[in-house]
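FORM 7B: Structural annotation worksheet

SECTION A. Query
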Amino acid sequence: MVAGTSVGALIGAAYCSGLTIAELEEVAHRVRFTTFARWTLSRYGFATNDRMVSFLARTLKVQRFEELRIPLGVAATDFNTGEGVVFHSGPIIDSVRASCAYPGMFLPVEIRGRWLVDGMLSHPVPTRPLREMGAKRVLAVQLKGQWSKTTVPRHLFDVIGQSFAIAQDMMGTVWRSAADVVIEPDVAGFDYDDFKRADELIHVGEVAMRRALPEVRKWLEAPAETAAPGKAPALVARPAPMPAD
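SECTION B. Predicted structure
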């Protein structure tokens, strides 16, 4: 089973709907910010992710949670209460849009009378929702990046992004306590909108996962614990040099 927050929800939905690894790579190479977002003038944000509706309609092989080949949880946050909301049923697309509604940048998404924003505010890495779904082993993937690359903010997005990056880091003990293994691909040096560097990012993820494989293989040799472990081993991988063309 899979649980995802923000872009993790988008990738999780695509994979659970039946996309192959090759198809996921193809999507990564062609997607750009304007594929799922457009700038707008609103008191609630500077952009809307409504283009994600048509993008996901074209990309996903099924449209409802009940049709997925692998159980999926999509995490979002109730704007009014701060409560984490995890979707497991109904239409997938709006749930993913809500999970990706980064506050200050994207407009909140209304679902069933609730205004929802990015799931990273409540479940930055949704390990606990996976436990609640029944998972006995949890493999967590954390994209720990520094939003601002300078000491002085360049614009509003730097202020918002770096503030959330700090808050997300401070919440680490909560979600790490529900993980067996934490994988942290080395995304230092990448920007949030580095879509054109898909090959490099895929390579960084591969390096991190290959380093984790020995630990994951141990799961096949021993029965899973029913309770969440106290401390998950963290696997931070530095990328090997990219092969020359």
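SECTION C. Observations
The chain has a mean pLDDT of 87. The CA atoms of residues 23 and 196 lie 17 Å apart.

SECTION D. Sign-off
Analyst initials: ____
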